[in-house]
Structure formats: C-alpha cells, structure tokens
Amino acid sequence: MVKEVAMQARPSPGVDQFFGAIRGRQGLSLLDFSSVSQASVSVVTGLGHKIYFEDLLEELDMSFGDGDFYANQSDPVAKARFLRSALNYPDDAMDGVLVWDSMEFLGAPLLQTMIERLRRQMKPGACLLAFFHGEEKTETVPVYSYRLSDEKTLALSLRGQRKPAQLFSNRALERLFGQFQSVKFFLTRDHLREVIVRR
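The structure corresponding to this sequence follows.
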C-alpha cells in the first residue's frame, strides 16, 4: 500500500466537461478508477447517480508488481489472471468512466485490450475522462489518488513517482481512442493533459 501525502484541490476542466455531459440526467452508473472515496461518493450520489470504484493501479501492482512490472504485463498467465479480475462489467453498463492517470502504466498490448474492454462496457454517447502527463521526455511521473470535491474541482494526493509505460502526444492519443466518437484535450498548469473521450 502506497502512503499518500496531504490532498491539494484544484479546478479541473475535464471534470467540469465530464459532469456537464451528464447534467440534468438521473440514475446513471459511473465507474471511478481510484480507490473508494466518501467525497466522490457524496458528489456523485448527490447528483442522483451510482458510482463504482476500481483502483486499477493497485490491481496492476498486485498482478504484475513482483519483478519487472512492464515485462510481467506480457506474461500470458499473469495477464490472464489480471483480466479475470479487472473491469468485469457487462457491455453497455457504464454512463461514464473516470480513468484518471492509470492508462500511462499499461504496456501497449494490455492497454489496447483494456481500451477495447472499456469501450464495450460504456454505453453509446458515454464519456471517459483520462489524464496523461504533458511532458514527453520525463523518466518518471507523479502518481495521484483523485477525489471529487465538486462537479468542477479535484482533490489530489500524491502516491509517489513511477516510470510510465509510455508518454503520449495528442496525435498518439487520437490514435489510441480511434474507435471512439470524439477526443477533446485540456492542458492544465500542472502539465496534466486532461482528455475527454466520447463513446
């Protein structure tokens, strides 16, 4: 378990756009890739929706963290075990997904598998919010836990530093989400590229 440091709040254009896309609707199902947070539960249920949590980074560490993290993602036995436990939801189950920065820590073959799985589990028109670091030549990136403060604001707590599998340009992200309807970028002051993807 990674020790987290104190939270800092900041406005998030991606969070604002994500909730703007579902404003006025009720009874939706949202998936959050961070650990369970009472603050996020309160924001989402206060809007009349359900929220499910799946700490994908923790699942990745449990499945691939013994030895070479990225080499282990290519091991067929470890990969099959991970895919049995991660993102097991029916097709068209989710109205929105808060992915945060977890996709940066998936090697290319596993990343593609997870993107395809997510796409199936999202309803047509559903939005996905993902974060990618904007500095493309860095060795390590900060890793955060994300909590919703409200429909426009995030609280972040640092989980540490980690080497990403790869860093993405805007063009690479457009290719990654090529099967989706649209991709929209926001570059923030802390060098996080916030990306809204519509199924």
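The mean pLDDT is 92.
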